[in-house]
Amino acid sequence: MKKIAGLFFLLIAGMSACNQKVKVYPAPEGIELSKAFQVEVEGQKVPVYKTKVPSATPVPRLKPTGEFGFASVASFDMNGEVSVSVTYPEQVEAVKILPSSYGIKAVIEGDKITFQVNQPGHLTVEVNGDWHEALHISANPFEENIPDPEDPNLIYFGPGVHDVTNVTIKDGQTIYIAGGAYIRCGVAENEEEIEIRGALRKKPTFILQGKNVSIRGRGIIDQATVPKKERRYTILAQRSENVTIEGITIFDPSHWTIPIQSSDKVKVDNIKIIGWRGNADGVDITSSRDVLVENCFMRTFDDAVVIKSFEGYGEVKNIHTRKCVVWNELAHALSIGAEVHENISNVLFEDCDVIHDVGRETALRVYHCDDAVISDVTFDNIRIEEARRLISCWIGKTRWTETEERGNIRNVTFRNIVATSAPIDTTLTGFQDGTDWKPYIIRDHASVELIGFDEGHLIDGVVFDNVLLDGKQLDANNITSNSFVKDIRFK
Q1: This protein's superkingdom (predicted)?
Q2: Cα 51 to Cα 140: distance, rounded to the nearest angstrom
Q3: Same domain, 133 and 254
Q4: Fewer CB atoms near the end CB (10 Å): N or C, the chain?
Q5: The pLDDT of residue 247
Q6: Do residues 407 and 373 touch, judged by C-beta distance below 8 A?
């Protein structure tokens, strides 16, 4: 009878959702909210959370100073065009809503900003020139196929605060973190370690291991209470098949946020990640196949979406990233490397927005310092609103090198890329080839480089097809290259 009642409740909730235009999830008691912004959607108040972001001034990735700021984060579900209003603590003189490709126009009245949102997406609102402590708004689609809390294969976290050390699921199981649920990640004393890539490590907060496994919902996972020294993954999919990771917001990851390792048929959809610690990557796809990352927002201190391969763990192929919004705080926005021990092929990054590139490495990069072959890579329809180092294909040795032999890069296409160079800042310092700290080479435009290693380890076949930098077609004069690069073509 209990299960019948639960099914009846879900049916009624589903019918109600069909009639709703917007859905807002209340914040749990005891969670400190942001005072920097107030947000309403269709007249409903939306909780605005706060989470750490990196310092506004450049700091070394491996030697962080401990300085940080706070971003504000709001989220709701929408089922049709909605009106959003944002109230700021002082008079609004100017506002910028990113990505610019959304074409959202704001109306300013005193301390209030209003605008229309006609489809799901991830917005960043910057007021009075403050890009650092911005407001991030996620307009999610309505959830489909909400699971029954009584399902024996479901681990359910309902609205409220939950303290979690580790949850591991196997074949056929799902972790569901409902809207209004807030997961505080902890560390237990004498905690058991597991083997990850040949080394014993602290268990990730959530482990997906098996066939037909998933973690999803509209709740929040916060790793802020995980000590710096622990460096534990947030969600690990390892040796799994048919994996879904969907809808969740993740604050303050202490290490790689979502590593996908030795897995097949994985979908990462509408995940929101905001991190500030060193090694706080977004999605790390390693030694896996048939992976789709889409509709995500990532503001991370290290790589956002990155593809790697480790020796003995399998090749990488058929990787697709699309419709994501990325804020590159230090390292790469969309990239392959550095660790590449097994071949990587058939990779597509498309229809993404890089709204900030304040980092000291490269927005779009194929970065190879080991011995495999990277081939058939395409960056297509990418919009970059602020670029310092725009494009790089590079083979060499760095602090990350683990093999004696070098590899090769073949058939890379950059198509329909639109980028604007960041303002020149002579105070910035950065990595030189990923090793030591050296002054930036100051240019009047974002840099593009193609650097092979030697005659046996070439970059062979690079196409630039409609690449616009500062409104002009990219040509050979914009590119730094060496004699170990063959077949550069411009269309």
Answers
A1: Bacteria
A2: 19
A3: no
A4: N
A5: 98
A6: yes
* Same domain for 137 and 159: no
Q: Examine residue 259 and state whether it is found in any structural domain, yes or no.
A: yes
What's the CA gap between 273 and 283, in Å, rounded? 9
The residue from 141, 166, 190 where one domain ends is 141
Q: Tokens at residue 364, please?
A: 């779009």
Give the CATH number, domain containing residue 289: 2.160.20.10
Higher local confidence (pLDDT), 54 or 320: 320
Ramachandran angles phi, psi of 31, nearest 5°: -95, 125
Q: Is residue 355 part of a domain?
A: yes
How far apart are the C-alpha atoms of 209 and 199, rounded to whole Å?
Answer: 17
Residue count of the chain: 491
Tell how strand 297-300 and strand 272-274 pair up.
Answer: parallel
Q: Give CA angle at 104 (101, 108), nearest 5°.
A: 145
Q: Supply the DSSP string of 270-305, one letter for each residue.
A: S-EEE--STT--SEEEES-EEEEEES-EEEESS-SE
The domain in which residue 174 lies consists of: 154-490
Residues 45 and 85 in one domain: yes
Residue 90 sits in the same domain as residue 195:
no
Higher-pLDDT residue of 93 and 301 is 93
Residue 177 shares a structural domain with residue 96: no
Q: Which of 64, 83, 475, 104 is nearest to 277 (CA)?
A: 64
With b meaning 16 or more CB within 10 Å and e meaning fewer, what string describes 133-154? bbbbbbbbebbeebbeeeeeee
Final residue before a domain boundary, out of 141, 164, 188: 141
* Number of separate domains in the chain: 2
**pLDDT interval class at 476 (50, 70, 90):** very high
- How far, in Å, CA of 125 to CA of 102, rounded? 12
Q: Using CA atoms, how far apart are residues 20 and 81, in angstroms rounded to an integer?
A: 12
Claim: this prediction has a pTM higher than 0.90: yes
Tell me what pLDDT residue 329 has. 84
Q: Which two tokens stand for residue 26?
A: 């209340």
Amino acid letter, 57: T
Residue 5 lies in a domain: no
Asked whether residue 116 falls in the same domain as residue 187, the answer is no
Where do we find the tokens 């005891």?
30
Label residue 388 left, alpha or beta by phi (over 0 means left) and psi (-120 to 50 means alpha). alpha
Contacts of 474 (CB under 8 A, 6+ apart): 417, 448, 464, 467, 468, 490
The CATH number linked to 78 is 2.60.350.10
CA–CA separation, 125 and 358 (whole Å)? 17
Contact (Cβ atoms closer than 8 angstroms) between residue 161 and residue 28:
yes
Supply angle C-alpha 109, 111, 112, rounded to 5: 60
324 with 467, same domain: the answer is yes
**Amino acid, single-letter form, for residue 105:** K
